[in-house]
Amino acid sequence: MQFVRSVVISVAVLPIIASLTPAQSGGRNLSPEEREQRRAQQEQELQEELQAKRPIPALDSVWIEELTWMEVRDAIAAGKSTAIISTGGIEQNGPYVATGKHNYVLKAMCEAIARELGNALCAPIIKLVPEGNIDRPSGHMRYPGTLSLRAETFQAVLVDVGQSLLAHGFENLIYIGDSGGNQRGMAAAAKVINEKAGKSVAHHVQEFYDYAAVSEYMNAELGVVETANDGLHDNFYITSIMMAVDPTVVRYEQRVSVDKATINGLSIAPKEATIEVGKKLIKYRSALTVKAIKAALGSG
């Protein structure tokens, strides 16, 4: 039996191949002048494409990954000058809450912050962060499902993402993290970017991670007070925010079915009441963060 090997070349790399090999035209090699003319023509065509009018209305989203490149371009041109880079994690969070806890929180929080700011878009959530040693596992890495990055990898990702956004025309970068272990890497990445830029364009807004203020607001203003400590990596304010995004990520129905729908002395049932608390906490936390962002941009 004769086997035929197929080679597939991506259309996206053809211009690169053409630039690396002698260009052919009618069976003859192009002269250096002709090759330069062709490169200039290709660049002109690209610039015309980059300036082309968007053929359909834009999606109403603040998430860059949900937008087309034309929608991002037009949003920047319309004044979306700030990009928010948020960091979460994949880690153990007790027997009821999904490992992506922080990422679900950020799904709600980044959208609320960007819309309140009015001039911001959200970069895709950085879901992988330092969670402990990988060799000889430590910290959260001792629990199945946890994914960890080395600190230097985490910082490098943050710098590359930030510089990518600056290259496209964003003027300010805001780093926020929903986990204490993320703060140092974000501050270091912002410092690297600012040194490269020669000015203050990247800001680590640590005020976002002020859960003490969130807890105090929940207690004093909403009258919701935890009366116990279950000793889990979980609490009512986190759970309520997550439920405002998706109740399944805290296993609401399963917990109700076996009479485990409580955390730290508070019931998470009925579902609607807990979601309402979560929405109020999102709004409160968003307002705190927007105030801190505006202060950071003003000082910058």
Descriptive account of the structure:
The chain is α/β, with parallel strands linked by helices and 300 residues long. The protein folds into two domains: 11-47; 64-299, Creatininase (Rossmann fold, 3-Layer(aba) Sandwich), CATH 3.40.50. Helix content is 46%, strand content 9%. It has ten helices and eight strands. The chain has helices spanning 14-20, 32-50, 69-77, 101-117, 151-167, 183-197, 211-220, 236-245, 252-257, 271-299, and strands at residues 24-25, 28-29, 82-87, 120-122, 172-177, 202-204, 262-263, 266-267. A four-stranded parallel beta sheet has the order 4-3-5-6, sandwiched between helices. It has a two-stranded antiparallel ribbon with strand order 1-2. A two-stranded antiparallel sheet has the order 7-8. α4 packs across α8 (236-245), α5 (151-167) packs across α6 and α8 (236-245) packs across α10 (271-299). The longest helix has 29 residues, at 271-299. The chain starts with 13 loop residues before the first helix and ends with a helix. Mean pLDDT is 92; it is low at 1-20.
